[in-house]
Amino acid sequence: MDKGQNEQVSALVEQAQALLYDEAAEEAHALIRSGLEVHDHVRLWRFLRRILLILGEEEEAAAVMKRVIDHIHAPTPGELALASSPKSAFTRLQKHKMLFLHIPKCGSTTIKDMLYYSLTGARGEGHAHSLLAKEAPYAYEDRRTLGRDYADWFKFLVVRDPIARLRSYYRFNLVFTNDLSKEVPGRETYFGLDLQPDYDTFLKHLPRYRQIFRTLRAHTNRLSDIAGHDPAIFDWIGTVRAMDELRARLSAQSGVDIPPIHNFRSHEMATIEPNQALEAQAREQYGADYAAFGQYF
After folding, report:
1. What count of other Cβ atoms lies within 10 Å of the Cβ of residue 14?
2. Average pLDDT estimate for 115-130
3. pLDDT tens, 8-31?
4. Domain 7-73: which topology?
5. Adjacent-strand bridge partners of 127
6. Cα–Cα distance for residue pair 146/151, rounded to 1 Å
């Protein structure tokens, strides 16, 4: 399978992107399929996965991802999740022997700011994700051998009730930073979905929103799709309410006195009035999370 630069492949992807922007998913699908008959290229397969999700073909999209995941140099956490890969993208701090698995909407900006401080003595000031990535790039590790490969490392995970994660995503990413409009600029709707939905609409159409919008899908993947189903592989698991406890553990592990750091309190942003029936419906979609990590919520 080809992974190198290819001008013809780039041109095909550009054409398919334009078709998707115009909501011509079937035409984009046909274009990429025809391209794959000539170029067995990772980039085309990855784009095909995106189109299949938009077409509602979740199982076929997952099958495509499983086929190509081992050919991708730096797969995204979302791609690993879709492929049901046993690997996860960990933040690996060799200096302090710490291994952190980032779950979106689980206080990761605060955590990465603390980790960045432990390495540099400076705050990330809102850029902790990108700054820490330069100091400690993602390491793609197999969760099944984590205990053996990192026996004397501090392996930790922060989790959160799935509904609290959805509320946080809605308040910060949909309302405050308007993520969906950035993904398809110049539009008010995309494939029939409002780019600035109210909370009830967001919950009611959550599966479809996840199929259409890449950034939304990445932020609302199940904990268990990212971290697996075995909490025992981690040395410490806590919730966002345990940040002070985690800070103490990180300070002890690193030998650095990390100051109190708290970033992006999304509950202080948009006010929502939860619809219990809709949240119960959404909760069912995260049953695997409650089974594996519910004891921590």
Report:
1. 10
2. 91
3. 999 999 999 999 999 999 999 999
4. 1.25.40
5. none
6. 7
